């Protein structure tokens, strides 16, 4: 019988759920998860900083195609690290037809992150991707599978075609992925292709098929994934709108509260009895970061919970220490504020933001930043007038966006999440005039609860302390009262993963 983890560590943002955090959680028998979002760019910047500790080199040395690893090392490694005021190198932005070296970079970076997360323990590790960031999927998934990833988790869309890709790679076959292109005619070629035989050095390696968990936003989407996916869906993560990162928009006409946040209602609630009827394991997420919530989830038939915010502030996470400290101080004082911004994300989906001076959550910081789009992970592919596929982002320079057929109203309040999320992990780009990209921290609504993980006299806590705290109530223990237990539980209003 399969032993599923009670705790899934969330695949948060860009580089927050890094290999150190995933390794720490998985070695304790729970599921550590690395974020695969923009991992190629994270990897390049680590090499440009001189590969402190030599970890990237250790992963490269284990990569099964040594010539490919050598090419990437030689191109991006800077001995001793680049000068602090020098900009990071920028790789080409992803597109339907990728240059070979960008495909190789995706393969290698995902391999290295999963390899390091799996080191020195026998337990499974997962990787989390956003379905919406489609262009790197094929190469990234293959790289993660080369490293023996045990679980693939994906939300931010409806990942119907991912299970079949995993099946194909495990069968040593090529894979395809249909790119979502706005305005595409049925005759337009939107299919992306990846053939492992074009990249291997020697015989095709035998790969194990990881379990696939879909991160969904409703009972309807859960059912859709199980009925329509092109391969096996091994489980579901049901994520509420209290979770950090992108949230699914409320069903029906968008309404905002007095603070300007989306209002979620009865139509957005999940039916847990209906989930049980689907016959696959499921995990509840969004505000479940405490032992009482885990116990309640298990009692309701869930396999466990997914926890993000608590792990995001652990010592092992990739979040910049100064941001951790500032927000931890707010949490200790009970003063942390999280705003569900309906405009910030170029995707048009609500995005949860921690309000913190000096970050783009402050109006003056946002207004002072010059619009730049040079990473492009959240660009929207669209059918250009010349019959080709173009790419646009509502957070790019307004004139550029309008020239690509975008609407002026879609640019209002949009923020460059790609560059901001890099800044969150200490990899901020430097612009001319020593201007440094500002951060923009995304966390769950339960930000102020992270203080509960601090031991007396301590200013930080470890991932192990989070796991220990979450598991502190055994399944058969009774809460002091049903009313007390209920106070810890989030309302099951749905969303999707960062």
Structure description:
The longest helix is centred in the first third of the chain and has 19 residues, at 100-118. 30% of the residues lie in helices and 13% in strands. The protein has helices at 19-26, 39-48, 55-62, 66-76, 100-118, 137-146, 162-170, 219-228, 272-277, 291-299, 309-312, 321-332, 363-368, 398-403, 417-424, 463-470, 482-487, and strands at residues 7-9, 32-35, 125-130, 151-155, 175-178, 191-194, 211-216, 235-239, 245-246, 282-285, 304-307, 338-341, 351-354, 380-383, 389-392, 430-431, 435-436. It is an alpha/beta fold and 498 residues long. It has a single domain, classed as TIM Barrel (Alpha-Beta Barrel), CATH 3.20.20. Strand 7 (211-216), helix 8 and strand 8 (235-239) form a beta-alpha-beta unit. The two termini are 31 Å apart. The strands form five sheets. It has an eight-stranded parallel beta sheet with strand order 1-11-10-8-7-4-3-2. A three-stranded antiparallel beta sheet has the order 9-13-12, with no helix packed on it.
In what order do the strands lie side by side in the largest sheet? 1-11-10-8-7-4-3-2
Number of domains: 1
What's the tally of helices? 17
Structural class, from helix and strand content?
alpha/beta
**Would you report the number of β strands?**
17
Task: Specify the biggest β-sheet.
Answer: 8 strands, parallel
Taking Cα atoms only, what radius of gyration do you get, to the nearest Å? 22 Å
Give the CA-based shape: globular
Unreliable spans: 475-498
- Helix content percent band: 25-40%
Tell me the name of the CATH class.
Answer: Alpha Beta
Question: Within the CATH hierarchy, at the fold level, what is the topology?
Answer: TIM Barrel
- Determine the N-to-C terminus distance: 31 Å
Range of strand content: 5-15%
CATH architecture: Alpha-Beta Barrel
Mean pLDDT score, rounded? 91
């Amino acid at each position: 019988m399969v032993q599923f983890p009670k705790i899934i560590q969330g695949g948060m943002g860009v580089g927050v759920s890094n290999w150190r955090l995933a390794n720490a959680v998985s070695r304790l028998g729970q599921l550590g998860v690395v974020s695969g979002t923009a991992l190629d760019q994270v990897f390049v910047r680590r090499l440009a900083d001189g590969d402190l500790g030599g970890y990237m080199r250790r992963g490269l040395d284990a990569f099964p195609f040594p010539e490919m690893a050598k090419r990437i090392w030689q191109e991006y490694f800077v001995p001793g690290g680049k000068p602090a005021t020098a900009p990071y190198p920028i790789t080409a932005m992803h597109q339907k037809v990728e240059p070979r070296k960008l495909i190789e970079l995706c393969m290698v970076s995902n391999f290295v992150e999963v390899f390091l997360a799996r080191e020195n323990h026998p337990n499974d590790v997962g990787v989390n991707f956003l379905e919406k960031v489609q262009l790197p999927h094929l190469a990234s998934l293959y790289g993660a599978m080369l490293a023996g990833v045990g679980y693939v988790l994906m939300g931010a869309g409806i990942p119907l075609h991912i299970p079949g890709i995993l099946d194909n790679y495990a069968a040593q076959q090529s894979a395809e992925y249909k790119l979502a292109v706005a305005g595409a005619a049925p005759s337009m070629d939107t299919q992306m292709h990846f053939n492992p035989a074009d990249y291997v050095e020697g015989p095709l390696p035998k790969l194990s098929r990881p379990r696939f968990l879909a991160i969904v936003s409703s009972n309807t989407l859960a059912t859709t994934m199980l009925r329509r996916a092109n391969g096996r869906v091994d489980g579901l993560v049901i994520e509420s709108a209290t979770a950090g990162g992108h949230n699914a928009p409320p069903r029906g006409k968008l309404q905002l509260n007095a603070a300007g946040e989306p209002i979620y209602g009865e139509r957005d609630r999940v039916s847990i009895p209906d989930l049980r009827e689907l016959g696959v394991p499921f995990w509840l997420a969004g505000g479940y970061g405490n032992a009482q919530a885990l116990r309640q989830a298990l009692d309701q038939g869930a396999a466990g919970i997914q926890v993000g915010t608590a792990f995001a502030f652990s010592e092992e996470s990739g979040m910049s220490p100064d941001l951790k400290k500032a927000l931890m101080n707010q949490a200790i004082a009970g003063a942390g504020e999280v705003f569900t911004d309906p405009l910030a994300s170029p995707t048009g989906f609500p995005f949860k933001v921690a309000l913190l001076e000096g970050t783009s959550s402050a109006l003056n910081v946002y207004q002072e930043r010059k619009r730049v789009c040079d990473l492009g992970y959240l660009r929207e592919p669209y059918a250009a007038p010349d019959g080709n596929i173009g790419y646009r982002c509502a957070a790019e320079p307004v004139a550029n966006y309008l020239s690509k057929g975008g609407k002026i109203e879609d640019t209002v309040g949009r923020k460059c999440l790609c560059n901001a999320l890099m800044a969150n992990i200490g990899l901020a780009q430097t612009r001319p005039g020593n201007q440094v990209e500002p951060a923009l921290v995304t966390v769950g609504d339960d930000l102020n609860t992270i203080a509960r993980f601090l031991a007396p006299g301590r200013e930080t806590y470890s991932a192990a302390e989070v796991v220990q705290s979450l598991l502190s109530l055994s399944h058969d223990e009774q809460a002091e009262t049903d009313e007390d237990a209920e106070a810890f539980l989030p309302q099951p209003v749905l969303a999707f993963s960062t």
